[in-house]
# Entry
Amino acid sequence: MTQEFVRQPAVSGTFYPGTARALRRALEEYLPATPPEHDLAGCVAPHAGYMYSGPVAGKLYAHLRIPRRVIVLGPSHTGLGRPVAVAPHAAWRTPLGDIPIDQELAAALVDELPTINFDADAHWREHSIEVQLPFLQARRPDVRIVPVCLQHLRLEDCLQLGRALARVIEAAGEPAGLVASSDMSHYEPDEEARGHDREAIEAALELDPAALYETVHRRGITMCGVIPATVMLEAVRHLGANAGHLVSYATSGDTGGDRSAVVGYAGLCFYRAAAQPA
# Structure
């Protein structure tokens, strides 16, 4: 059951600027002034500190038309709360203001599967969803969100959850976008990280959630949001997405300079492409 309280920011002032003025300046720097090319069906967006992943995230979000309703799937870094935890709050706060929770969509999702629960503990200190929100606010000021924090799940559970998301979105009668929050390889030499990330990206762009999940686990790729990405891919496949591409990629070595132990960042978008005439 949703509650009438606001989730306060956990990483404002550390992962991203802590004042509205400074945050707006940063977003203006990271978001290119280019027309969007695709409606957001699903995407993979990085969640590191903006000084590292902000350029990749900005190019991705500028590339997309954001619908009024967005479900943001993030991995659990804290280990707190239920395995599939929907935020029970009334709104989430950032320095740019409060973003309302889409109460109707959140309740429908919790009702769809017994494994999905309202749980505030999972979101208490978690950053993976929070860092996406200023970009969503900048691109769509009237956005409403459903934050969902995910612990590690079996492939079968990821696919079941993805299909449940697709059913809920279809029943809502209005488009809803899916953001899967994930960084890529962690703390490897730059060249090694890029090779591992290329494998994961290629699997994701096949729109094959099982291939992504199995590639990451088999190859030991340290993609922290593989569970959100797998769930998102299964959902958008059932919602009719048939295309995807890499919008931007970088490592922390590109911004920080140290290439001995980097983190990778990818911006991937997935959408329904119009059929080409025969």
In short: The radius of gyration is 17 Å. The first helix runs from residue 20 to 30. The chain has one domain: 6-271. The first strand starts at residue 6 and ends at 7.
